[in-house]
Write a structure and sequence with these properties.
single chain, alpha/beta, Rossmann fold, 5-stranded parallel beta sheet, about 50% helix, PPK2-rel_1, PPK2-related, kinase activity
Length: about 280
Amino acid sequence: MTAHEWAKTFQVGDGFRLSDVDPRSTAGYGGGKADGRRDLEAGLSELNQLQERLFAESRVGVAKDSVLLILQAMDSAGKGGIVRHVVGGVDPQGVALTAFKAPTDEELAHDFLWRVAKRLPEPGFIGVFDRSHYEDVLIGRVRSLAPADEIERRYDAINEFEAEVAASGTRIIKVMLHISPDEQKSRLMERLERADKHWKYNPGDVDERLLWDDYMAAYQTVFDRTSTAAAPWHVIPADHKWFARLAVQELLLDALQQIDPQWPAAGFDVEAEKKRLAAS
């Protein structure tokens, strides 16, 4: 599949039902784990070059484009692995990563989108949100952290906000890494059984597991209400880490290929500078 075909395969459209997505699927991909890892490595070269071109354009003031990758998922679905193995393969000076935690007192004093707007990527950058404003309509809904009418207001506010962001030149890639409850249990157990992974374990993850169906319903509403032409959602089966990483890389490639950044022309006389340098 081309990068654009990958994007279309996982894009949320009319009639989408999260319950129809098999988290174990490797939809449309004919290879296995070894093939996926090899293809991930092969795609890294193109991703790196496209990102460097985008960054280079912005440094000389000719680019207005950027990319924003939004990662949402249940705990242990692999967001960190995406950051390390996909985004981590490009030049870090052109990447802006934000991991959104529980809002601070200052952030709570503002509208829920205030802290998000401050972290949007500048032109030339790939921005990555490890969790995002969608927490405010996911855990915010499931845990009743805001009144129902406020949760309802937020869906429209998100759509308006993302439309403005997209119109400004930012390609928004929204990804839900879809993991099964059984796979999550296995990964959480691994964190408990390995001393080098204890730091990753949060006892609260078990509490959230007990609300799995509520979270899936909240995600379905998010897809129904906020998957738009300007900022569509993509649901990636994530029980196989290698496949999820490959799929997200293809989404990034698709966005950057559509931007099609080019090496900026020199703002000086190259031949004259060669002579000056040779004579120095």
